[in-house]
Specification:
Helices cover 46% and strands 24% of the residues. The protein is elongated, with a radius of gyration of 45 Å. It is an alpha+beta fold and 478 residues long. The protein is built from 14 helices and 15 strands. Helix 1 packs across helix 9.
Length: 478
Amino acid sequence: MIIRNHGNNEPHKFPTIGVVALFAFMGVIILVGAYGSYRILFDGMIQYAQEDLQEIAEIKARYIKTLLAERHGDANAVAGCPSVWKTLAGINSKQEVVPLDKVIADMFSGRGYRRILVVDTAFQVVAPSIGGRLEPTELAALQKAVRTRNLALVDMHRIAADEIVYGVAYPIFSDNDTHGAVVGAVYLERNGQKNLFPLLDFKTTPSPSSETLLVRRDGDEIVFLSRLRFIPNSSPLSFRLPIGKLTLAERALVNSEFGLLTGKDYRGVDVVGATHPIPGTPWAMVTKVDRAEIEYPARLVGIIILTLALVLLFLLEAIFRLFWRRRSLEMIAERVVVAERYAMALRTSIDGYLVVDHSGRILDGNVALSRMTGYSTAEITTLRIHDLDVVETSEELAAHILRITAAGNDRFSTRWRRKDGKIIDVEISISFAENSFFAFIQDITERKEAERKLAASELTFRQMFELNTAVKLVIDPK
């Protein structure tokens, strides 16, 4: 049998490039690759640091959101306390008003509140309550809560030289029904230095330059609510920057740029960081680290990569030559093995195999095909398909070839004439590839003959059954 091998069993020649040109070309490739590796490493380290900072910002922002939600829940608990809303609605008797302070104190004992104030709609403190006078910011928040019938944040403000507080105001409804009339409001106040700032000061990474900031906008300035790590003796709410410096804090608060950012911090130092809003507040969380701290290991690795690249340049040409030669020989050996396996499979196959061109001329065939048709392998390659097929005419065969070309494959039965004139039934599985048709043929003459005999037997039996004059019944066994 003929196996056509279009490959070349000669080793591939090494490219004919001058040594100088080769080294120059390889040098450029290596240097570009080294720089590319450095940039990939550098950008990866920046991205990793930013993602780490973003996760820190999100975690701390969620924690603050949870703290505020707890304040909301506590305010709702005060507003929903029967002793509170009944007193403000005038439902309680005079004797029931007296234990109001005790009710609130019992509800929030040990919860860390600095003050709890209950006011009526005239914003007068309802006595007796856990008291103190109303500050202007607190009064404004209580008025907003009553007006909007919703929670209002009392932003961080300083009430003493060393004390910063924040809180929430929440309306109180008659009958504890949010659709009812507002009969007053409650204000819950906590110390920010004890509840919020320790979270911001807590370091989650060993970085010497990492920092977490809580900021808000105040007119044309950015106010830093937390302490600043790189300004000695800084205190909360004491540091401000005018808008226009384009710090990360400004970009978050003024331009609403949240997420991964690069830019400058309040010192004017280049940093990478992440910003995250605090829902329900005018605050934003900023986490950052100095860009130089991240770049240093990347630059060091870059120098190492460049040094190794230059050393590699002197070794690459010899290694490349060796690899080229070895790979060339391996490819030749692989092609030989594949060709031998392919030839062996076709030679030993019990099914016939042939290759046909678009005109129907048989280009190749195996031994099984010779046994099936009675032609020798040499004679087969002188035939055309219509020399064997006794079913389709030349025109029908040409049309069939076009259909197979369009579909890519086909499976059908037909009848062939052997060299000795005997007609056999065959089943053909054919596919189209590389401008040729590849077919496997099975001799199904015996199967077809058995099918014809079975059909004839069934016909005879049916005729005998139907023409017999005797009474016939078909009865189910049950």
